[in-house]
Amino acid sequence: MSSVARTYGRRDTILLAGCVVLSLVALFLPERMREPLATTLRRTVLAPLVSLQSDAELSRRAWATREERVAARDSVTLRSMSVDALSAENARLRDLLALGARLRWGFVPAEVLSGRGVGEQYTMPLSAGSRAGIHEYSPVVAPEGLVGVVKTTDPSMSIAIMWSHPDFRVSAMAADGSAFGIVAAHLGSGPERYLLEMRGVPVRGTITPGTEIVTSGLGGTFPRGIPVGVVIGEMETSELWARTYLLRPAVLPSAVSAVMVLLPARADSGVAGVWQTGQGTLAATRAIVNAGDSLARATVTDSTRAAAVADSAARAAATAVPRR
Amino acid sequence: MRPIDLARTLVAFVVLVLLHFTLRPLLGWRVGPDFLVIALLLVAIRVRPGTAAVLGLLMGIVADSIELHAFGAGALAMCCVGFAASWLKAVFFADDMFLNAFFFFSGKWAFDIIFLLAERRVGGGELLRELLVWSPITAVVTALWGLLTLLILRPILRPSRT
Questions:
Q1: Do B79 and A20 touch (CB under 8 A)?
Q2: What is the pLDDT of residue A47?
Q3: What is the chain A residue with the closest CA to B70?
Q4: Is the minimum CB–CB distance between A73 and chain B shorter than 8 Å?
Q5: Which of A285, A307, A43 is nearest to B65 (CA)?
Q6: What's the order of all strands across the beta sheet hosting A123-126?
Q7: Quick one: A109 exposed, middle or buried, by C-beta within 10 A (0-12, 13-18, 19+)?
Q8: Complete DSSP assignment for B6-54
Q9: How many CB atoms lie under 10 A from the CB of residue A27?
Q10: Burial of residue A150, with CB atoms counted within 10 A of its CB: 0-12 exposed, 13-18 middle, 19 or more buried
């Protein structure tokens, strides 16, 4: 302990006492005096150290939450992958709402109940049945066009066959009414299985590729004007007096998740103007042309009338002079 | 103290202060090492008790500026611990690991005791729990890190030969 005693002097005692007194003063300093002093220290001496501490805290937090961040990033990626599907579904539902607004009455909205598996791609169970007014042979439509026809009905559900079903038939025509035929599934193999063919088109009725095909309304099941597909080209067949055309369907089976079933009264009253087809465009063009012609005729009539009035005035003036 | 030794000690001091504000928050332990106390003790055994007390006061005041509820408590604890460490430095002059560990342990525990009593924030059972459970554990952790620091900084802290 002698060495201990040697290292301790009066000056050290005074310094210690001073330090203790200063510490106690700081400890019992009023708030209004303590705060400025602490603030000054924080903003000068301690500022770089606090900045370092802050960075270290952030680093630790980043390290501690790395797994959460990876999980969150994965979730976001997963969600972003489903965004496209949701957008497509939203767009389809909007289209369906728009179709409902155009139909106005006589239809039943229905969900396609189960995901179609292998062997089920020709039929689809619907969430509405006879209780909702659906009957057999009610047309099933989508915003894009014809989907199929109801085959059987139960009180709470019904089963429809799609256009891809081998038994499906619909009387159809070119949108401009230039050719008629019967549309059925193209029973080919591979990707062509999901195409349609329009049979029995008279030889004189040539249809160019790209022509829109709509239901003709013949037969009573399907009202006139529902889009069926678009002509891809003519098929070579053994028939001599009729042509067969290959069609790209208006509705893809994979895109069908919600549909509209037309009730018999609505089917009977027609769906003119519900789908914007070439027929409508043609009618509109004709109307515009007719309107133009009417205007031209009216202009000619007006000018003739004006000329007649001028002639009458001139004649009246000529006859008035001798009277003087 | 020779100027070269003073410079080395200052380097070790700065490194430890930086560790206190970087490594300690990075570890984020409930009972993290107190590098400020280690730095004070390392310097205190190389200077006179009065100087160690002044250094402790300054370190404590700066550290207290971010803990307003305990402003001055850290300064009081630091200057007392610094003075005591410098006063007792002859005891710990021996280059013994156990003694050095005990030195760091005692310094940190003493600091916590003075700090908690001066702060007057906690009392009763909580104060006893802090003083008898958490403080000793923190002191042990500080002692272990102090030993590690001594081993790493040994080349710097070794006195130069005359």
A1: yes
A2: 84
A3: A27
A4: no
A5: A43
A6: A107-111, A258-262, A139-142, A145-153, A158-162, A123-126
A7: middle
A8: HHHHHHHHHHHHHHHHHHHHHH--TT---HHHHHHHHHHTTS-HHHHHH
A9: 19
A10: buried
Find tokens 């057999």 and name the residue.
A136
* Residue range B5-37, pLDDT digits in tens: 888 888 889 999 999 988 888 887 888 899 999
Please check the confidence at residue A219 and state whether its pLDDT lies above 60: yes
CA end-to-end span of chain A: 159
Q: Is the pTM of this model over 0.80?
A: no
- Please state, in angstroms and as integers, the Cα–Cα distance from residue A180 to each residue in A149, A163, A207, following that order: 20, 18, 10
Which residues in chain B touch residue A9, judged by CB atoms under 8 angstroms apart?
48, 50
Structure tokens at A4: 């201990």
Q: What is the dihedral of CA A129, A130, A136, A140, to 10 degrees?
A: -40
> What gap in Å lies between CA A148 and CA A213, rounded to an integer?
15
Residue A198 phi, psi (nearest 5) = -110, 110
Q: What is the ipTM of this complex?
A: 0.86
Q: Distance from CA of residue B149 to its chain's centroid? A: 12
Q: Choosing among A4, A6, A14, A27, which should be mutated to test the B contact, i.e. which has the most B CBs within 10 A?
A: A27
Instruction: Pick the residue from chain B with its C-alpha nearest to A59.
Output: B26
Contact (Cβ atoms closer than 8 angstroms) between residue B160 and residue B2: yes
The conformation of residue A234, written as its DSSP 8-state character, comes to: E
Nearest-Cα distance to chain B for A72, in Å, is 23
Average pLDDT over residues A206-220: 88
Task: Say yes or no for a CB contact (<8 Å) between B49 and A45.
Answer: no
Q: How far is CA B2 from CA A19, A315, B5, B156, B162, in A?
A: 26, 136, 5, 13, 9
Tokens of A92: 């389809």
Q: Is the dihedral of CA A164, A169, A173, A179 positive or negative?
A: positive
Q: Which residue has the tokens 């280690």?
A: B38
Tokens 């047309």 belong to which residue?
Answer: A139
